Amino acid sequence: MSLSCSGLSVTYGARKALTNFNLAVAPGEVRALIGPNGSGKSTALQALAGLIRPDEGRADIDGAPIAVMSRRDIARRLAFLPQQPSAPDEMTVGQLVRQGRFAHVGLFRSYRPEDEAAIAWALESTGLSDFAERGLNELSGGERQRAWISAALAQEAQTLLLDEPTSFLDIGYQIEVLDLVHRLSRDRGVSIVMAIHDLNQAMSICDRISLLNHGMLAFDGEPRDLAATGLIEEVFRVKGQFVQIAPHAPPHFDVELARWTSPPS
Amino acid sequence: MSHAPQTVSRAPVWFVPTSVAVAVLSIMLAVFIGVVDIPPADILAALQGHGSAEAKSIILDIRLPRILTGMLAGIHFAVAGLILQMITRNPLADPSIMGVSQGATLAVSLFLLLTVYIDNPGSNTLAELPIAWLPGVGAVGGLAAGAVIYLLAFRQNLGPLRITICGIAVGAVLHAVAIGLIAGWGSARIEILLEWLSGSLYARSWRHVMFLLPFTVVGLSLLPLLRRSLDLLRFDAPVARSFGLGYRFHFSLALALSCSLAASAVGVVGPIIFVGLIVPHLARLLAGRRFTLVLPLTITLGIVVVTLGDLAGRVLGQAEEVPIGVITAIFGVPVLIALLRRVP
Ligand SMILES: Nc1ncnc2c1ncn2[C@@H]1O[C@H](COP(=O)(O)OP(=O)(O)OP(=O)(O)O)[C@@H](O)[C@H]1O
Ligand SMILES: [Mg+2]
């Protein structure tokens, strides 16, 4: 397993945000993490990245416990994209992406050609090659989001944790990011855990899916099996059904809107 | 793979030499202009060790050490302010408002008060005042205040904003205690204290230069080692940590460096306010996106501001010179307001 955790529990003060969370991600696997707002997705990702210390349980990366690894050691193996990161005002896209190489260059080593190549690749993969000189505060929300994805890519880690990477993107870039995720996993064997709100995108991109509800794992398995459980309707409190659109595609969740069923009176 | 894009803006080559030239120019002005008029030829002779005894004494024993002390103090305040603003991510962070100056003030007041009674009870002879101890005492007080703020902040696991507020609160308390002490005391030594409090370069000697120099050398030579961690400390802690930085260690290191620079300077020249606040802003304004320029510009501008400020104080006041701290306070406010209007 490239990334795993068992029995992770996290509390913020008195509030329990994550209870007994388990996860095992194989090399090259894409894992979607879904659940309602406040269900503990970001908390789980932060605990997996070693950014918050769990009250109980442990997380391991490449078989070694994260709790005892140095930050740089972790960063060489695992890159993490926070949900709403903020950057210093005057920073440019290029400078942000450069920070992604810190895990490799450290405090003293100078940037080598392979570092510059990784930065160029990261910018190119997110369609930002022409934006390197632009200030982050001169970007649209989606462009900024892509700059952060790019910084995480520049880290060239074999495990990638993405907290809602597509939430500010237009549909074109959403698909581009999902394609990128797919390519990284298949071409480079990168393991990816991704919190994502679009259920159908989650179903179609991931190999396995984890569903969180009130900080507890409600489902862990293949998308097709999730469709068969009826958990989605229950956890998200919606009405709808899974429909098979294409023979080999994962089932598509078709949500029912109240205004379609109740005509104006 | 296409060609690597230029991810670091190149600085124009003339930028740093120009700022160095301006710094040198301001130092030369400060050497050549003074209350006592000395012909330039005599000054040049004195600098080479020749010339009249009077010129030599004025230039080598009075002006030069005073200017050098100011230079070093300017560098200390400016760099300390820059580091503090970066790591607290607060554009208004400044050692003079965040406890370090106030800690030094309290230590110096306490020290003067105690020595009155310990050294020679009952007498108030100014001649015997232990002025030589002031820099050391002030520096220790400033560092102690820094340590208190640090402990408070990390005990509670406070974020950078809280550290700033914590620093201001601790500073306010220390300041109040020091003022209470001074008010309830009223001995002849208050004059020394007031002179020190206003931030002054009056009568600073080679001894003061030698006191500051080790801090300057160690501090500035640590900066290249801190370059990348300072870059990362400008992010939120979780982001910096996920990029691979041991946040707490590097934050502590940067804070300790900033406090040492500020405390040693406060000890020697008293709290010269606004230099640590304004110089980094000016440097950033001039540097724009060329981050690599911010530090060198902060250093040279720190020199320029203090040197010219002190020169202005000497020339404006003539025999009754205006302390540099008063000059920076008076000119600092409009500059600060102008800067705040430009910064979004
Ligand atoms: N720093 C914090 N301090 C206190 N409580 C927190 C903190 N962060 C999150 N919580 C709480 O923990 C629970 C889980 O939050 P988390 O951010 O993990 O949810 P999420 O699944 O990522 O939600 P979203 O879909 O809105 O991003 C929520 O009830 C939230 O209010
Ligand atoms: Mg979240």
Report on the structure:
Chain A: It holds the Pfam family ABC_tran. Chain A: Keywords: ATP-binding, Cell membrane, Ion transport, Iron, Iron transport, Membrane, Nucleotide-binding, Transport. Chain A: It is a peripheral membrane protein. Chain A: Its main location: membrane. The complex is a heterodimer of chains A (265) and B (344). Chain A is an alpha/beta fold and 265 residues long. Helix content of chain A is 35%, strand content 26%. Chain A is built from eleven helices and twelve strands. In chain A, the strands form three sheets. Chain A has a six-stranded mixed sheet, with helices on both faces. In chain A, strands 2-1-4-5 form a four-stranded antiparallel sheet, covered by helices on one side. Chain A has a two-stranded antiparallel ribbon with strand order 11-12. Chain A starts with a strand and ends with a helix. With 344 residues, chain B is mainly alpha-helical. Chain B has a single domain, classed as ABC transporter involved in vitamin B12 uptake, BtuC, CATH 1.10.3470. In chain B, helix 3 (53-88) packs antiparallel against helix 10 (247-269), helix 3 (53-88) crosses helix 11 (275-287) and helix 5 runs antiparallel to helix 10. The longest helix of chain B has 36 residues, at 53-88. Chain B starts with 14 loop residues before the first helix and ends with a helix. The structure holds adenosine-5'-triphosphate and magnesium ion. The site of adenosine-5'-triphosphate (ATP) has 12 residues of chain A, from strand 2 and helix 1.
